[in-house]
Design a protein that fits this description.
heterotrimer, A mainly alpha, B mainly alpha, C alpha/beta, A: mainly alpha, MetI-like fold, two-stranded antiparallel sheet, globular, B: mainly alpha, 13 helices
């Protein structure tokens, strides 16, 4: 177990270093790193001095080591466009994105898993067919179109929900949350639904496919032959055996949620990281892009690590230590 | 690359199999195929079919701006589904826009396909370290959401190129940015088929007569992977069209001078609140119909050819 | 009245190219405590008959004719939940592969306990105690320590013992054992068969033993039914079927000498192979391969008929009087 965790941790560090290298390359070789540090307003003399200070002629490994050290202490330089430290910008925007992603993940799981189980079991019912057809439409609906349609119906026509922003936020230390006010809750409804819809259909289809697969296995047939109640077979034996692949995909999809939050945040003018990133891309704000890349990679790696550890809880075969001599295959 | 022989073989196999049976039996698929055809014809022949030329400043009148669809009391029979903020006919703009969307979509898919199939053959033939590196790269690629990769590529291109150069190359940047995410699946399928072919005698024979084995393998591997690759390409086309629309909607895709569906939706979005819903909703509808039709076709194709895709 | 009576059972598979008849007019009976062997080549319909009896035919397969009665009560037309209460409680089942019959994610104790609690009022504690007792009965050493182990922690033979414990958990009156030892190592096949037979004798449980291994049948069964292309070719006491087979097909089958563990996948004594379901010839299905074929065999299908001995065979050789006997 410990060896496994250490191995996964080392892999995670490896991935982060690789991403760091890309970010470093972007930061130093695209555009002017001095600009990246101080912004365009600095005088010629300041620049020369800074160049000296930064030792930009130092050998590559030295520079990369310094970049990693800075990144670890949260220093990603200055935003070219905003003239503020990238770290501050990110700290400001992070809560909005995390709340949105979290709400969407909950929605996607709460709808995707039960619907997937249902369509997997009641394979031939017309309700399943309707759900599947609708889900195919869901896959073909671009996130931003869903957002626009929701805004048109619920904000423009019905005037029920706000179409942009986070509503009223409350400060908890450096974290700003919209989940403590009614306006905040109203504001997150449409963005969360928009972001979750695609993931819901993915989870639904995956759970369904896995259920169909598991339902064909011998142990389900044997469970039926033992006369177990259908509920125990479907939600116990079958669903639990779909969990490993489902956890994998859900884990990967949290990464997807972070990526697609860029679009949702743009549609709903949600003041999160995604909106920050898209502005950075539009204005070629390299330090912000580099920092965003590192941050998203870190989230990916953390989620993947969590997924690997979850496998341990779900599947006894991975725990292995108690296997007896001559037993098991 | 491989000439017409594989195509003929595929067509024959298709006719032999139950493919036409399953096509006729599924009205949804027939409808999807018809819809896709309508889009392709409408887009390709837009200059002849479109009721107006939205990019000809002589015919576009600012006075016509914000005309609602004809069924509205303020509608104008010249503009079936209304006009946009500059007085351009929305239907014509959609036809021209689909042109860009489809072109970028097809180009991106072809790019992924060529890249993926080539890497797959090389990976499957070379084995060992090369194979490990390529497949590792594919794993990493598959875990990264395509849209994130595309945005990064576009951002880097913007930072690395002068503005005018970027604008001139924007459409190629978008094709590259979208296409670069698609290759791993093609590579996996092709790699598997290559590994099967690799040890057959003709490969050794080719070497004896002085041909590079990879050259001859392309010819033999391609017919084997035609089915799965076609399915991947169809489903990939829907994804690429959506990706392009998304990039353009976010304002980092094709330049506004040659608008795609995504650009139109982005432009129209600002008028949603003032009540001019048609400027954004019709292009959205077109986009969804196009993506859905292509997806349905891909789904049907996967079931009909039943390749080892899962 | 026999414990299980199957009469004129017919099972069809609906396909796009028409209905395939997998089981055609099969009748058999199993007495209380009796071991009936069902033998035949792969695809003869042995397993489908077994699955039809416990009501677990997989679509598109379904029973389209005949009756199945358990202790006189008709069970082939029961609602799903009524049939579920019979499965496990009245009729247990054991399948071929012990490696895949157990849920890998649940401990064996839990799987035993849930089976017991599904059919009785036992409390969780009582069910667990009974589970430990069952594991002991099937010969798992130190059952109280192994009760929480997962399937992958047992060897193949031990897993099949667990499967037997599961099938016997609430003392069913009949066990349908479908190739219970085929997936096992030859060295432990005999042990498992002996265990199954011993336990069933103790509890007075009848067994329908489905196998293509004539050796297993010869050592275990009281009576044997030979199946060919979805029909019963011959049925009778095991000694008579082995020693003096009547049907030409059975004779060929017996040519492959009954040694425990010897498999009868293909019959070297008879040329050709069993017809596929979509190409069953008119008349007797065995006719094209039959060394004793007559003109009548290609036209008319024989039913089971008396042969002068204890066996009955579906063969025109035994119809001097021209009277077919049913049942």
């Amino acid at each position: 177990m410990l060896a496994y965790v250490i191995q996964r941790l080392l892999q995670a560090v490896g991935v982060m270093l690789a991403v760091g290298l890309i970010a470093f390359a972007m930061f130093n070789y695209i555009g002017d790193p001095v600009n990246n540090m101080v912004g365009q307003e600095a005088s010629q003399a300041d620049r020369a001095e800074l160049r000296q200070q930064l030792g930009l002629n130092a050998p590559f490994p030295m520079q990369f080591a310094r970049f990693v050290a800075n990144a670890l202490s949260g220093d990603f330089g200055m935003s070219l466009r905003m003239q503020r430290p990238v770290a501050h910008l990110i700290a400001e925007r992070l809560p909005a994105t995390l709340e949105l992603v979290f709400a969407s993940a909950i929605l996607a799981l709460a709808f995707g898993v039960p619907l997937g189980v249902f369509t997997g079991i009641k394979r031939h019912s017309w309700v399943s067919r309707v759900i599947l057809t609708v889900s195919l439409v869901g896959v073909s609906l671009p996130t931003f179109v869903i957002g626009i349609l929701l805004i048109y119906v619920f904000a423009v026509l019905l005037g029920m929900l706000p179409s942009f922003g986070r509503g009223e936020v409350v400060k908890l230390g450096w974290w700003s949350t919209g989940l403590l006010t009614k306006a905040g809750w109203l504001a997150i409804v449409m963005p969360a639904i928009t972001l979750s819809l695609f993931q819901t259909t993915l989870i639904l289809r995956l759970v369904r496919a896995e259920m169909l697969e598991v339902m064909r296995t011998d142990f389900i047939k044997f469970a039926r032959a033992r006369g177990l109640p259908e509920r125990a077979i479907n939600f116990g034996h079958a669903l639990k055996n779909t969990l490993v692949p489902v956890i994998t995909i859900v884990g990967l999809n949290i990464g997807g949620l972070i990526a697609f939050s860029i679009i949702t945040e743009t549609v709903f003018q949600w003041p999160g990281l995604g909106a920050l990133f898209i502005q950075a891309v539009q204005f070629a704000d390299v330090p912000v892009m580099a920092a965003y890349l590192v941050l998203v990679a870190a989230m990916f790696v953390l989620v993947n690590l969590a997924v690997d550890l979850l496998y341990y809880l779900v599947d006894p075969r991975l725990r292995g230590e108690r296997a007896v001599a001559g037993g098991g295959h | 690359m491989a000439g017409a022989a594989p195509l003929v073989a595929l067509a024959r196999r298709a006719a032999d199999s139950d493919i036409f049976y399953s096509f006729r039996r599924s009205p949804m698929t027939v409808a999807a195929a018809a819809m896709t055809l309508v889009f392709i014809v409408g887009a390709v022949f837009a200059p002849w079919l479109a009721p107006h030329d939205p990019f000809e400043s002589v015919t576009v009148e600012l006075l016509d701006a914000f005309t609602p669809p004809v069924w509205d009391a303020r509608g104008d029979p010249r503009f079936l589904i209304g006009t946009d903020d500059q007085g351009r006919d929305v239907l014509s703009v959609i036809m021209y826009g689909s042109r860009i969307s489809l072109m970028v979509g097809f180009a991106a898919v072809i790019f992924s396909m060529v890249l993926g199939v080539s890497l797959g053959v090389v990976s499957g033939y070379a084995g060992g370290f090369t194979d490990a590196v390529i497949m590792r790269l594919a794993d990493v690629k598959l875990t990264l959401p395509g849209i994130l990769v595309a945005l990064m590529v576009d951002g880097i291109a913007r930072a690395a190129m002068p503005r005018e150069l970027h604008d001139a190359l924007a459409i190629y940047v978008v094709i590259f940015a979208i296409g670069i995410s698609g290759w791993p699946q093609y590579a996996r399928v092709t790699r598997g088929a290559t590994m099967v072919e690799k040890n057959k005698e003709y490969v050794a024979a080719a070497r004896v007569i002085g041909l590079h084995p990879v050259t001859i393998m392309f010819r033999h591997v391609l017919p084997n992977v035609m089915g799965p690759v076609l399915v991947l390409a169809t489903l990939g086309l829907a994804l690429a069209i959506i990706a392009e629309a998304t990039l353009s909607f976010l304002g980092v895709g094709v330049p506004a001078t040659t608008p795609s569906l995504g650009t139109l939706i982005r432009i129209g979005n600002s008028f949603l609140f003032s009540g001019e819903w048609w400027i954004t909703l019709f292009p959205s509808l077109a986009l969804v119909l196009l993506a859905l039709s292509v997806n349905l076709l891909g789904d049907w194709l996967r079931d009909a050819l039943n390749p080892k895709l899962r | 009245m026999a414990l299980l009576e199957v009469e004129h059972l017919r099972v069809e598979f609906e396909t796009r190219r028409g209905n395939l008849i997998a089981i055609d007019d099969v009748s058999l009976a199993i007495e209380e405590g009796e071991v009936l062997g069902v033998v035949g080549e792969s695809g003869a319909g042995k397993s489908i008959t077994g699955m039809a009896i416990i009501g677990l035919l997989e679509p598109p397969g379904r029973v389209t004719g005949g009756e199945i009665r358990l202790a006189g009560r008709r069970i082939d037309n029961l609602a799903y939940d009524s049939m579920r209460r019979i499965r496990g409680k009245e009729i247990g089942a054991i399948f071929q592969d012990p490696l895949t019959s157990l849920n890998p994610l649940y401990g064996v104790g839990r799987q035993l306990a849930e089976t017991i609690m599904a059919h009785t009022d036992a409390s969780p504690t009582a069910a667990r105690a009974r589970a430990i007792q069952l594991l002991g009965e099937v010969g798992i050493p130190a059952p109280e320590r192994r009760i929480d182990a997962y399937p992958h922690e047992f060897s193949g033979g031990m897993r099949q013992r667990v499967v037997i414990a599961l099938a016997l958990a609430v003392n069913p009156r009949l066990i349908i054992a479908d190739e219970p030892t085929t997936a096992l190592d030859v060295s432990i096949q005999a042990q498992i068969i002996q265990l199954l037979k011993g336990l069933c004798r103790e509890h007075g449980t009848a067994i329908m033993l489905i196998t293509h291994d004539m050796g297993v049948i010869a050592e275990t069964a009281d009576r044997v039914a030979v199946m060919y292309a979805g029909r019963i070719a011959e049925v009778g006491p095991v000694r008579d079927v082995v020693k003096s087979a009547k049907h030409p097909y059975t004779k060929g089958l017996m040519g492959s000498i009954p040694i425990m563990g010897r498999e009868v996948e293909r019959l070297s004594q008879i040329d050709g192979s069993m017809p596929r379901l979509n190409a069953i010839p008119t008349g007797c299905a065995f006719n094209p391969r039959c060394p004793d074929g007559m003109a009548r065999c290609g036209v008319e299908r024989p039913d089971l008929m008396a042969t002068g001995g204890p066996n009955r065979a579906a063969c025109w050789l035994y119809a001097p009087l021209g009277v077919a006997v049913h049942g």
